[in-house]
Amino acid sequence: MSDSQIQEISVGERLAGKWQIPVFIIATGVLTAVALNIQSPDRKVGVETHLEHIAAYNEAGMYVAADKLAERILSWEDLPKATRGELHKHKAWAAFGAAERIADESDEVFGKVVKEYLVSIDLGAVLSADDYRRLAKCYEGLKQFELACKSYGMAAEIAPPPALADRRRVIELSEYPLRVSATEIDKLLEEFIADAQDSLDDLIWALSRRVDSLSKSKGWEDARRLLDTYKGKFAETDLEPEYSFLISLTLWGGGQYDEAERQLRDLLNRTTVSDSVFPKAGWLLGKVVMSDGQAQRPEEAVALFRDVISSRANPSYVTASRVSLAEALAELQRYEDSLKSYEDAIEDLDRISGDHLVNPEVVRTSLAVVSETCRRSGKLRFALEFMKLAVSLIEAKDLETYTKFIIRQSDLQAMVAREIVETAKTESVGELTQIPTEARVLFDQAGENYVKAAWMNTLNERRSADAMWSAAGLFDEGGNHERAIDVLKAFVRDRSDAEIIPRVLLRLGRSLQAEGRYGEAIEAFQQNISSFPRSPHASASLIPLAECFMAIGEEGEKEAEAALTSITKDSEIFTPEAPEYRDAMFLLGDLYTRQGEYEKAIPVLDEVLQKYVTDPRYPKAKFLLAGAYMKSAKAIKEEMLQPEYVGESKRLEAEFKSRLVTAISIFGELTKYLEQQDELTLGKLDRLYLQDSRLYEGACLFELGRYEDALVLYERAAWIYKDSPVALGAYVQVINCYIFLGREEEAEAALRRAQYLVETIAEDKFQGEGRLESREGWRSYFDWVAEILVSGEPRRIDTGLNQ
Question: Would the CA dihedral through 224, 228, 233, 239 be positive or negative?
Answer without folding.
Answer: positive
